Amino acid sequence: MADDGVEALAGAFLGYEPDEDPAxxxxxxxGEPGTSTSVREMDHRGHHVRIETTYRxxxxxxxxxxxxxxxxxxxxxxxxxxxxxxQSALDVVKxxxxxxxxxxxxxxxxxxxxxxxxxxxxxxxxxxxHHR
Length: 132
Known about the structure:
Layout: H1 2-15, E1 29-30, E2 35-44, E3 47-56, E4 58-59, E5 62-63, E6 68-70, E7 76-78, H2 89-99
Antiparallel strand pairs: 1-2, 2-3, 4-5, 6-7
């Protein structure tokens, strides 16, 4: 059933308990369009571990807008899909293409990132503030 997947996602989200709190500032960096870097740090058996993961994502040569990061669990999170965190960046990109890639931009009144730019060159049409 479709509800089983939702129940599993909700259970995983509500039941997640990291081994340790993430280090301050471990959220990541925003670089050039289509590039996201996540930094995860932990201490394990007296050793300090730092993992930096950088994604440079384009679809049809256009950079993916928004931040992609690797969570402490290893799942991949895209800020525009706050409750979705699959085990693969490829799954994130497939979902972007299937849901928002060719849709008109919608302003995010609560966030600080603009909506996705529609695919293709359709001129300005008075849509101020969109980024490619």
